[in-house]
Design a protein that fits this description.
Elements (H helix, E strand, L loop, with lengths): L12 H17 L14 E6 L5 H12 L3 E6 L11 H10 L4 E6 L4 H7 L6 E7 L5 H16 L13 E5 L6 H12 L3 E5 L15 E3 L2 H4 L5 E4 L15 H8 L3 H4 L7 E3 L12 H4 L6 H20 L18
Parallel strand pairs: 1-2, 1-3, 3-4, 5-6, 5-8, 6-7, 8-9
Length: 328
C-alpha cells in the first residue's frame, strides 16, 4: 500500500483485497470478549474534522482505540480554525504533537491531498471525505459488506465481486461516496451503473469506469446490490428537480420496486437516510437493507486501513502456533 489513503483510485486490486481480507480478521476480533489488539500501542491518531460527522468520526475513533492507539479528536467548531487558522498552521500544530496518522474530513475537495503532499506533517493521511471528491474508506466498507452478503463464507478469494452488477441511485453529482465506489468496484471487477436525474449527473461522467442510466426500473431486476444515495440539499444552490415528491416517485426505492430486484440482491445506504425521500421506511427496515451492517463493518474496515498504514503488511492477528512433537 501507499503511505496515504487519499483516493479509491489509488488502490490496486491487490491493495484493495489486502484491506478487505485484513478487515475480515478485524471483524473476528469484534466477536471476542475483549475487542482490543495491542498493534498500534504508542501511536497517535488524530481525527481532524472540518465538517460535521457522526458515523465516520466515531467509526475511526473506535477503530483506532481497538488497535490501542491514542486518539485525539479535533473539531473545527470551537477550535482556532473558527478564529481563522489555516490548514497549514493546524497541520503544523498536529505535527508538533507527534501525530502518526491524521484522518481528515474537509469541505474542500483536495484538502487531504494537500495535507499529504505539503510536507507539513510526517504521518499518514487518511481521507475521511473531502467536498464532493472522494470518501475511500466508505467505498471499502461498502465492498466489504457486499462480499459478506453476496459471497458469504467464501469471501476472500480476490475475485468475489467479479461480474457483480452494482447500481448506485440518486444524487451522484454531490456524492463523494459514489465517486469512490465507482473506482473501487471497477478495480474489484464489478459492473457499476449510475442512475440519477440528468441534473444530478456530473460533467465528465462518461470518463468514469461505469454506465449511466436514467431508467431505474430497467436496471433494478439485473442488480446484485442497489445503493441509494442521500439527496444532499445542503450542497445544492439551485433547483435540481421539481419537488421532493417527484424525485421520490422517479428515483426513490419503495417496497414494490425492491420486490423487482433479484431475491439475493441487497439494498445499501451510506447514511444518513432521508426516509420517505430516497428510501421508504419499509425498505430501510427490511432484512435486505444493510445500512446498520455497513456501520459495523466500517469499524473493521477502518481498523484494517489504520493497521496497514501504521502497522505493517503482515497478518494483523498472529495465528495460533502449531503444536510441535515436544509440546504434545
Amino acid at each position: 500500500m501507499k503511505r496515504h489513503l487519499i483516493s479509491a483510485a489509488d488502490l490496486t486490486r491487490d491493495d484493495a483485497v489486502l484491506i478487505l481480507d485484513t478487515a475480515e480478521e478485524m471483524a473476528r476480533v469484534a466477536d471476542r470478549p475483549i475487542k482490543k489488539l495491542p498493534t498500534l500501542r504508542g501511536r497517535t491518531v488524530v481525527n481532524l474534522f472540518f465538517e460535521d460527522s457522526t458515523r465516520t468520526r466515531i467509526s475511526f475513533e473506535a477503530a483506532a482505540k481497538r488497535l490501542s492507539a491514542d486518539v485525539i479528536n479535533f473539531s473545527a467548531k470551537g477550535s482556532s480554525v473558527s478564529k481563522g487558522e489555516s490548514l497549514k498552521d493546524t497541520a503544523l500544530t498536529l505535527e508538533a504533537m507527534g501525530a502518526d496518522a491524521v484522518v481528515i474530513r474537509h469541505g474542500a475537495s483536495g484538502a487531504p491531498y494537500r495535507l499529504a503532499t505539503s510536507g507539513w506533517i510526517d504521518g499518514a493521511v487518511v481521507n475521511a471525505g473531502d467536498g464532493t471528491h472522494e470518501h475511500p474508506t466508505q467505498a471499502l466498507l461498502d465492498a466489504f459488506t457486499m462480499r459478506r452478503r453476496l459471497v458469504g463464507a467464501d469471501a476472500g478469494t480476490g475475485r468475489d465481486l467479479d461480474g457483480r452488477r452494482i447500481t448506485i441511485v440518486g444524487d451522484v453529482l454531490h456524492s463523494r461516496v459514489a465517486r469512490s465506489n465507482v473506482h473501487l468496484l471497477h478495480t474489484l471487477g464489478a459492473e457499476v451503473t449510475l442512475v440519477a436525474p440528468p441534473t444530478l449527473v456530473p460533467i465528465g461522467v462518461e470518463q468514469w469506469p461505469c454506465e449511466v442510466s436514467y431508467d431505474r426500473d430497467s436496471v433494478l431486476p439485473k442488480s446484485d446490490a442497489v445503493m441509494m444515495l442521500r439527496v444532499q440539499r445542503e450542497r445544492m444552490n439551485a433547483a435540481f428537480f421539481p419537488t421532493e415528491r417527484e424525485y421520490s416517485r422517479r428515483y426513490g426505492l419503495d417496497g414494490d420496486r425492491m420486490a423487482r430486484m433479484p431475491e439475493h440482491a441487497i439494498v445499501m445506504h451510506p447514511g444518513p437516510m432521508n426516509r420517505g425521500m430516497e428510501i421508504t421506511a419499509q425498505v430501510a427496515d427490511s432484512d435486505r437493507c444493510t445500512a446498520v451492517e455497513q456501520v459495523a463493518n466500517g469499524v473493521s474496515t477502518r481498523m484494517a486501513v489504520l493497521y496497514l498504514l501504521l502497522g505493517g503488511n503482515e497478518s494483523a492477528i498472529s495465528p495460533t502456533p502449531a503444536r510441535t512433537e515436544e509440546s504434545k
